[in-house]
Amino acid sequence: MWKDKFLGYTIILASGSPRRKQFFEDMGLQFEIRLKEVDEVYPQELKASEISDYLAELKAGALKNSLKGNEILITSDTVVWHKGVSLAKPSDSKEAFEMLKALSNGWHQVITSVSFTTNSSQKTVNHTTKVKFKELTDDEILYYVRNFRPYDKAGGYGIQEWIGLIGIEEIQGSYTNVVGLPTQLVYKTLMDMVG
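^ thats the sequence. predicted structure below, dont judge the formating
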């Protein structure tokens, strides 16, 4: 059985995201959560997946030295890339409104990088999903920001929430990636690691 391949390994998820935790549970993986605060600052010349790769590895660096031989540490980061700019988590309602206004009536990319770290190796993978919003009205954006307060989400929105249900016309790529974790890629990479 596929689960037997993980006997002897401990998977550590270094994320406070309830969505990522739920995905790991839904995939049937046994894991523990280990958190360490990291200042998510990256070199300004980085673009698109370079940013999320860098931040996923930065988060791993905070915990790498404490890993035991059988532990696999999983860290990740999601960026919303739009017209050459990374849209991070909005700091307030004004910024969330402006982000959604910018994303309205067009395509953007959601990129999630996942880093798999042991005490002797590191592998980082990423997936890009293209997302298209319809033209959102100011009223729709204000309703969403006021009621859902999306300040913990890159780009200022959650695809699984109201704004995604009424506003997203099309996606190209992994849906779970937009929620915060490319689950199929995570499963494949883990299976490759444990042989």
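The longest strand covers residues 71-82.
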